[in-house]
């Protein structure tokens, strides 16, 4: 039996893939450790790619504005300075926004911590009174609760004794945290430099990457890769833009509502609610929990009103803002949004919660296109006596509306 060259390549590919798959299954821990080490080494560059993508979302409108301002003058110097100046403006905008957030949040968090320490004796007395009252109620129902005796001075002495007896552990932990912080700062600086280089040379890098793919990969596969890359870029861009817009709207509405109701910590809570709103679905609960705790330390009753206010705000956000701003931008049904956030969060933490929705949207769009193309192929050769295909197609069209 004669086997042509193309068939031989397929057979060799299947054999190689099968061998690698069995090796991974039997040495999964080694494979996972290898992936983890490679990811750790490449982490600054992966973060740089993320930074470059986020900066590019801001860079494009700034460059468009630059071109409109200098289009009529046709200044060669303006053309040469367009990219570096626009990158500098984009970085400055993001750094300024981060410093503003820190300037708003840090003093409020410090004041809250000082207030908690100052009010600790009063809190212990209130907790002791509440526990005694609860014990009396339970005693009437023949339920005996354990005795609780709280004293602020005793708590202070216990804390001092605990810290002194575990000083070595705290010292080692402090050294570890300091090392991790310096490592993280170094990685962030390297990532920022890498992202700026990518943005400065993005057209050249794109051309070089296409040349490499066309030289090593068949043309039909290159077209598929480029199509998927374009879909991914558009989906992530729309998602980032939509999430930022929604976060700003939610933060502003929260600040206005808290100001009207004269609630404490309105600026810091509004910023926290807006920032956590970047996380789809579960971000609102995180921001609400932190904000309610901060208000609870000062005015417990208003903490309850704050939770009720956020619930109303979430209804407005879920039914009006999110579908208009973000929902249409990713084209993903709500069931898959919840699944993407849950799976991404359990797998990769907060990063997975942030990237799960656009990534799932890309997979959903590709799979939908494949299914529709296969349905079209079957439709052309379908038996007229079998109307199931037309019904499935109609149901699919209705579900997409």
UniProtKB/TrEMBL annotation:
Localization per record: Cell membrane
Membrane among keywords: yes
Protein's membrane topology: Multi-pass membrane protein
Keyword match Hydrolase: no
InterPro entries in UniProt: AI-2E-like (IPR002549)
Domain of life per record: Bacteria
Predominant subcellular localization, coarse grouping: membrane
UniProtKB keywords: Cell membrane, Membrane, Transmembrane, Transmembrane helix, Transport
Transmembrane spans: 12-35, 41-62, 83-106, 175-200, 244-263, 269-296, 303-322, 334-367
Protein family: Belongs to the autoinducer-2 exporter (AI-2E) (TC 2.A.86) family.
Entry protein name: AI-2E family transporter
Organism from which the protein derives: Candidatus Onthocola gallistercoris
Lineage summary: Bacteria, Bacillati, Bacillota, Bacilli, Candidatus Onthocola
